[in-house]
């Protein structure tokens, strides 16, 4: 059936082509309509023709072969290999049409040219823009840098068309472009190596003293014909063409000998003979330069190496020694391709695409792999670039690869027309089954469903949407003022992934990079609405203050909503932003958990303002590099850095792990950063880009050995400014530098400026970023999912406000266990003391005790105490002394806790210690309600230390009371002092009455009759 449809479609197109005589060139508009403006299916054909007559001929031919047409396979898509050609086949000057007509290619060339100029090399644009004759010699540096840059730009252009390589193969000089595309070298490093090597050749070698000779003969025949003549084997390109190198005198002698045997020879017009003895004077210096100045990474895709005649898949093979050898030793293109075929990296179905201004390697590949090898070109001399590319794209599309046709037509889309074509030739048949009844139409339309709708389901006022800004629920603009509110769900896929890309304490946390993307998005949106559109490069995300961390919940079936409100009275003065939580009823939280101000500036002015300090930043980086070489500073690889980061505090997802290496000394560090090329989501500034270039400050504060990272962790409460004067680009190389210093106002706070550099230029800065120390014991309290048990146990334990007034109503705990059963109490098998545990008394107003966890049956049983026990009050006193740093002897009952350093943070730590060491769950506000040590001890004696009721010194009390308790057996009821024993027995009786009569024990008046002959009084019938 599908073949019949395809057949009908081709016949229809044939009619369309014949009837479109009114258009000046109907094939162009037809090609645009059927490729860029139509959805493609697994049955299809592609034709490439320059004229309508050629298209008609191909259509007629395809109709005769309809039965042999096969669908495209989604699983058997052929591999794509990018191959890069050496210098010998290039013109000295070119006029590249793509540079003039393709915005993507032109942008890449201009970017690479800017890199070359920053590295100290002259501009290579004149070698590519047609401003000189093709034989004009620009010199070795410009010619070689230009060729390398064109090849890298062509690879990027193909990737924009949807064609990405699975393998790369570089020939001679062009191996640097192949290493760049494979991810081993950055574009900056590739250009730097090529240019520096060319400069060394010009300085230490005589141009024209050596040459290269291409011989159309196999290597064994050359050896037989040349005999004992002196020459070098430079390149083995295929079974026949071989390139020799040597002095011109040597080559002329070899040419004569080979000519006598009938072998054709041709000289290659290059000033310097690579892979020959001419390069010997530069090898040592070049290797040293590559070792010191270049960062080599693990390849993303396999590299076919002509030097080794093998395939490189690891990150250790390519190094400075490899680059030296590749300059001098033979380039065995034939052996490399055969080896890749032998081990299965390639097969004869691979699609080869040549990245070069002219096609050379394609002929070598067909000679090696056979005439059926598919070898495509990017550009050809004296041929229109669009024609060459269209021919190659047609072959790729016909093989089932997905081509981004819209990107191909983008440069001249304004001149093209969308044709109204006939529909597909479907074999239409009515399969509709008529439905009887109205249940499906009326279901859900009940009167009572309305009130059940959540208040959070608000109507949209704009269809604008990104991954983080999911819905605009309110906006109002007047002149230069306006306000808007957005709402997003943390449980949606993109935000959930973004939060868990920055995992702390095992849970996803909304980071400042997420807030920054939201701020940039809303900033761009509001300026556009107010008629003054501004891109984020001109924005300053200023005065970001985070009052409370936002942690993703674990239950993804329920929404977790946030709202961000942005408002301005005058857009010239900036935009105020506030982040709020939203409850299940759609009500916005009373206080924002984060605030920021978006200010407007000029990116170029920011860049200018950073120029004077650039040399200072670079000098500090050079100092750190020198210290690392001497072993004084620590250098981390990507894997080691993020492993340490994860073990200390933050576990980043892969695309957030942009730091490829870090050099750190105490509180100062720099990092080389490569942004991921992984795509996904709709962002203004992807959070994983911001995090990658900026989280070096957090790495320092949580990993450095200059302070206690084992007992503390550091998080940021915000920054003063964030400026990104140049867009952050996927796959680009950056360098971050920061030095964190203690704040003058607060010793627990460190601050610093993170400088973001690219190509020796500061392109961004996160200014005044702060990090605050917190004891690690508080990690669960601050970073637990809001729906987790840990978070609920801390719900009432927030940091108290400093102005809160103490409350003198003491909380009254009741039993948290089941009641002492009748028999258990009467026969003494259960200890009345251990049966009581603190809990909240709702009748006493706001309490300082959080709900205590339930005890197990084993915990309920009284256990023998240690030989040298300490009372609860003594243990509490020791905890307070250890956390405040005060000698325990200096703490008296009159000591005011605030005077010895028990502030809001220390009170949280002490509360955690009480919970962990004493099994007492309290709110940190307890230390405001009982401001002196004596008041706190009195409260502990009353509710937790039943053996400590008598007013005797702590030490004596421990000896007299606890020793008597420890001498009893588990089946005995200990002999407490009279008042204590009565109090304990009374508490147990009240608990029993409470459980049996289902009345609150606190509601029983003192006059309630408790007849000794009938101790269970009004509840007697419940025990029968």
Automatic annotation (TrEMBL):
Disordered: annotated span: 794-819, 834-868
Stretch list, region C-terminal hotdog fold: 633-780
Catalytic site: 502 (proton acceptor), 691 (proton donor)
InterPro entries referenced in this protein's UniProt entry, alphabetically: Ac_transferase_dom_sf, ACP-like_sf, Acyl_transferase_dom, Acyl_Trfase/lysoPLipase, Malonyl_transacylase_ACP-bd, PKS_dehydratase_sf, PKS_mFAS_DH, PKS_NRPS_Biosynth_Enz
Keywords: Phosphopantetheine, Phosphoprotein, Transferase
Alphabetized GO MF terms: fatty acid synthase activity; phosphopantetheine binding
Biased composition (Polar residues): 794-803
A Pfam family of this chain: Acyl_transf_1
Occurrences of domain PKS/mFAS DH (ranges): 470-780
GO BP annotation list: fatty acid biosynthetic process; secondary metabolite biosynthetic process
Residue ranges constituting the Carrier domain according to the UniProt record: 870-944
Bias (Low complexity) ranges: 837-853
Keyword Membrane: no
Signal peptide: none
Domain of life (superkingdom): Eukaryota
Residue segments, region N-terminal hotdog fold: 470-605
Official protein name in the record: Conidial yellow pigment biosynthesis polyketide synthase 1
Organism taxonomic ancestry: Eukaryota, Fungi, Dikarya, Ascomycota, Pezizomycotina
């Amino acid at each position: 059936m599908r073949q019949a449809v395809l057949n009908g479609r081709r016949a229809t197109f044939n009619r369309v082509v014949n009837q479109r005589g009114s258009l000046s060139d109907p094939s162009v508009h037809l090609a645009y309509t059927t490729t860029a403006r139509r959805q493609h299916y697994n049955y299809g054909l592609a034709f490439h023709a320059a004229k309508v007559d050629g298209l008609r001929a191909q259509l007629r031919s395809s109709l005769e072969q309809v039965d042999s047409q096969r669908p495209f396979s989604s699983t058997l898509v052929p591999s794509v290999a990018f191959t890069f050609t050496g210098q010998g086949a290039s013109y000295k000057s070119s006029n590249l049409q793509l540079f003039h007509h393709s915005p993507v290619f032109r942008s890449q060339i201009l970017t690479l040219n800017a890199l070359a100029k920053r590295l100290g090399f002259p501009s290579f644009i004149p070698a590519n823009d047609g401003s000189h004759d093709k034989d004009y010699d620009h010199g070795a540096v410009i010619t070689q840098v230009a060729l390398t840059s064109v090849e890298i730009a062509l690879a990027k252009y193909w990737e924009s068309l949807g064609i990405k390589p699975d393998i790369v193969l570089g020939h001679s000089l062009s191996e640097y472009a192949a290493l760049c595309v494979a991810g081993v070298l950055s574009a900056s490093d590739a250009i730097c190596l090529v240019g520096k090597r060319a400069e060394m050749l010009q300085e230490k070698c005589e141009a024209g003293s050596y040459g290269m000779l291409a011989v159309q003969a196999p290597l064994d025949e050359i050896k037989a014909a040349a005999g004992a003549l002196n020459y070098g084997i430079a390149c083995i390109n295929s079974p026949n063409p071989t390139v020799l190198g040597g002095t011109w005198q040597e080559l002329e002698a070899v040419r004569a000998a080979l000519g006598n045997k009938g072998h054709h020879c041709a000289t290659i017009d290059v000033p310097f003979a690579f892979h020959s003895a001419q390069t010997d004077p530069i090898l040592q210096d070049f290797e040293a330069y590559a070792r010191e100045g270049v960062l080599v990474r693990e390849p993303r895709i396999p590299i076919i190496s002509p030097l080794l005649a093998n395939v490189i898949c690891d990150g250790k093979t390519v190094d400075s020694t490899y680059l030296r050898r590749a300059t001098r030793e033979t380039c065995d293109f034939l052996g490399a391709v055969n080896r890749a075929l032998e081990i299965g990296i390639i097969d004869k179905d691979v699609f080869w695409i040549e990245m070069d201004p002219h096609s050379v390697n394609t002929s070598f590949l067909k000679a090696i792999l056979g005439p059926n090898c598919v070898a495509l070109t990017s550009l050809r001399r004296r041929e229109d670039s669009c024609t060459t590319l269209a021919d190659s794209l047609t072959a790729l599309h016909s093989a089932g690869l997905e081509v981004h046709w819209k990107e191909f037509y983008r440069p001249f889309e304004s001149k093209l027309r969308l044709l109204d074509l006939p529909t597909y030739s479907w074999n239409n048949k009515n399969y509709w089954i008529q439905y009887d009844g109205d249940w499906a139409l009326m279901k859900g339309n009940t009167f009572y469903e309305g009130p059940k709708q959540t208040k959070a389901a608000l109507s949209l006022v704009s269809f604008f949407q990104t991954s983080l800004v999911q819905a605009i629920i309110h906006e109002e603009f007047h002149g230069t003022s306006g306000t808007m509110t957005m709402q997003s769900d943390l449980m949606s896929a993109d935000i959930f992934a973004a939060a868990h890309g920055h995992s702390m304490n095992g849970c996803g946390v909304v980071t400042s990079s997420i807030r920054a993307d939201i701020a940039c998005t809303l900033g761009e949106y509001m300026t556009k609405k107010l008629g003054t559109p501004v891109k984020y490069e001109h924005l300053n995300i200023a005065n970001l203050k985070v009052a409370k961390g936002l942690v993703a919940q674990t239950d993804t079936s329920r929404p977790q909503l946030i709202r961000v409100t942005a408002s301005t009275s005058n857009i010239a003065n900036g935009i105020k932003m506030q982040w709020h939580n939203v409850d299940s009823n759609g009500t916005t939280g009373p206080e924002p958990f984060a605030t920021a101000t978006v200010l407007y500036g000029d990116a170029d002015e920011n860049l200018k303002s950073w120029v004077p300090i650039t040399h200072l930043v670079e000098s500090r980086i050079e100092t750190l590099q020198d210290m690392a070489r001497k072993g004084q500073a620590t250098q981390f690889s990507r894997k080691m850095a993020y492993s340490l980061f994860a073990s200390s505090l933050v576990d980043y997802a892969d695309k957030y792990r942009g730091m490829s290496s870090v050099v750190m000394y105490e509180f100062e560090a720099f990092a080389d950063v490569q942004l991921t090329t992984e795509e996904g989501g709709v962002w203004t500034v992807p959070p994983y880009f911001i995090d990658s270039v900026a989280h070096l400050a957090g790495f320092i504060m949580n990993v450095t050995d200059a302070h206690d990272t084992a007992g503390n962790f550091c998080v940021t409460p915000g920054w003063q400014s964030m400026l990104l004067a140049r867009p952050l680009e996927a796959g680009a190389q950056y360098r971050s530098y920061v030095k964190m210093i203690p704040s003058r106002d607060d010793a627990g706070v460190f601050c610093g400026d993170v400088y973001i550099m690219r190509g020796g230029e500061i392109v961004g800065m996160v200014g005044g970023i702060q990090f605050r120390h917190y004891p690690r014991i508080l990690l669960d309290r601050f970073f637990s999912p809001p729906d987790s048990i840990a978070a609920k146990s801390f719900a009432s334990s927030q940091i108290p406000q400093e102005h809160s007034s103490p409350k003198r109503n003491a909380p009254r705990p009741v039993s948290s266990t089941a009641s002492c059963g009748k028999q258990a109490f009467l026969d003494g098998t259960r200890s009345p003391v251990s049966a009581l545990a603190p809990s909240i008394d709702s009748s006493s107003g706001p309490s300082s005790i959080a709900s205590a966890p339930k005890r197990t049956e084993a915990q309920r049983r009284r256990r023998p105490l240690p030989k040298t026990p300490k009372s609860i009050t003594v243990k509490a006193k020791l905890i307070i002394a250890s956390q405040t740093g005060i000698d325990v002897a200096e703490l008296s009952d009159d000591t005011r806790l605030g005077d010895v350093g028990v502030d809001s943070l220390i009170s949280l730590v002490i509360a955690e210690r009480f919970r962990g060491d004493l099994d007492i769950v309290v709110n940190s506000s307890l230390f405001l309600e009982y401001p002196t040590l004596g008041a706190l001890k009195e409260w502990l004696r009353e509710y937790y230390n039943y053996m400590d009721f008598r007013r005797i010194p702590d030490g004596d009390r421990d000896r007299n009371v606890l020793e008597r308790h420890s001498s009893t057996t588990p089946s005995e009821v200990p002999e407490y002092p009279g008042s204590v024993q009565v109090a304990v027995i009374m508490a147990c009786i009240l608990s029993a009455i409470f459980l049996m009569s289902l009345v609150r024990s606190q509601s029983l008046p003192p006059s309630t009759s408790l007849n000794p002959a009938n101790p269970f009084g009004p509840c007697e019938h419940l025990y029968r």
